[in-house]
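Open question from group meeting: does this chain pack into something compact, or does most of it stay loose? Before anyone orders reagents, we agreed to write out a predicted structure and look at it together. Recording both the input and the output here so the notebook holds the full record.
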Amino acid sequence: MDGKLEGRTAIVTGAARGIGAAIARAFVLEGAHVTGVDVLDDAGTATGAAIAAEAAAAGTGGSFLYVHCDVSDEAQVGTAVVGVLAARGRVDIMVNNAAVQVEALAADVTVADFHRVVNVNLLGCVLFCREVLPAMVRQRRGAIVNMSSVNAFSADALLPIYGATKAAIIGYTKSVAIAYGPHGIRANAICPGDVDTELNRAFWAAHPDPAGFRANVEAQYPVRRIASTDEIARIAVFLASDDAAFVSGTEIVVDGAITARIYEL
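Structure tokens returned:
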């Protein structure tokens, strides 16, 4: 690691596992002080211990603190950000990664499912941005990375609300970028394709032939595989670092060319 985020303070949501855990780890190894929030306390604690041990061995100077926080709860989000500001005095990087999905055709979506997906995926992003932006304005510096998805522009019949939230995140990110750019704040979105996460593995495990189903999914990709969490984390490091100093208000697609083709014969 090159210390690209040395001494910076970051908040990463959905940090207990998957992409969020990979981003938190990558940030710490680049020297950042990361507060990772989630509601999966056992997984979050285990992730924190693993990251701390690796950082200590590498001598990066970065650190990780796990904090319980429901991103859809306004009070909990406010408390989490106040805690980071009290401990570190600033927030340099905000990564809104926490997300849930509920499979259902559009005609079968319940109001409860709608609110669950929207409140975690979109409201959580809005709340954390709202809470960190004043500190970033005072600092005249900040980088916001919001996790969208290729489902923002390539639909999945069973994920209509998930896709809608991911499209909304792109629009929201652009608005933040143009409103707060004059204050030295950048905002960008990442749009991954399928990633090898616990969520995806559970999805495949629900099918009669999990290995066959995964192989079929990977065969759809021109690169003939899905992404690792570390590959997405490296994009987050780039967007959070000075390497991306003139990158703002855009979305970076990380999908192995799956959305680049029309069909495969």
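Observations to bring back to the group:
Residues 111-139 form the longest helix (29 residues).
The domain at 9-192+228-252 is CATH 3.40.50.720 (Rossmann fold).
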